[in-house]
Amino acid sequence: MSQPPRRVIVGISGASGAVYGARLLQALQDMPNVESHLVVSDAGWRNLRHELDMDRASVEALADVVHDLANVGASIASGSFAAHGMVVAPCSMRTLAAVAHGLADNLLTRAADVVLKERRRLVLMVRESPLHLVHLRNMATVTEMGGIVCPPMPAFYQRPTSVGEIVDHSVARVLDLLGLEHALAPQWQGLPLDS
């Protein structure tokens, strides 16, 4: 018997860094037996257009299933939906705050709330700088709830030669956190002691 697909929910909210969500969807598309479910906030759609020149149809084509932000009755809003995990890429401070305080006021934040309550993997690629105290407290709260705060940080030890390689490294870290095999970025092999 074939295994059921691993369902990964991808949320794209309104922080800068829409490329992380789009690249994550592309990577999931290339994985056998993975089914992606996409939900995008209104500001997320705006940033996808502004930062990547991607229209709605182009983004939706990257996902297996697309859910409307207002449809809090969608499948991903229920704990009975067997999700492998969820990634919000990028995650705005507004979305972080809503998740930290259980404000399931749209499908993106409701799906994140469900993933947490079902003790599944939630990864938030938070994007903001500098951070004030409420941002930090919200990150601590989500961490205490079992979520993973994973800001997309450049890994210069990998000696990237393009923005694409920097993006791929951050997306690769997220895939690692989900336990999904990939070939986006090399694993660190360490440095010799004499370097």
UniProtKB/TrEMBL annotation:
Source organism, top-level taxon: Bacteria
Residue sites binding FMN per the record: 14-16, 41, 92-95, 127
Residues in Flavoprotein domain copies: 7-177
Keywords noted in UniProt: Flavoprotein, FMN, Prenyltransferase, Transferase
MF-aspect GO terms: carboxy-lyase activity; flavin prenyltransferase activity
Chemical reaction(s) catalysed: dimethylallyl phosphate + FMNH2 = prenylated FMNH2 + phosphate
Broad enzyme group: transferase
Entry EC number(s): 2.5.1.129
Annotated residues for binding of dimethylallyl phosphate: 157, 173
HAMAP family (alphabetical): ubiX_pad (MF_01984)
PANTHER family registered for this protein in UniProt: FLAVIN PRENYLTRANSFERASE, FLAVIN PRENYLTRANSFERASE PAD1, MITOCHONDRIAL
Function: Flavin prenyltransferase that catalyzes the synthesis of the prenylated FMN cofactor (prenyl-FMN) for 4-hydroxy-3-polyprenylbenzoic acid decarboxylase UbiD. The prenyltransferase is metal-independent and links a dimethylallyl moiety from dimethylallyl monophosphate (DMAP) to the flavin N5 and C6 atoms of FMN.
Family: Belongs to the UbiX/PAD1 family.
Protein's name in the database: Flavin prenyltransferase UbiX
Organism: Acidovorax ebreus (strain TPSY) (Diaphorobacter sp. (strain TPSY))
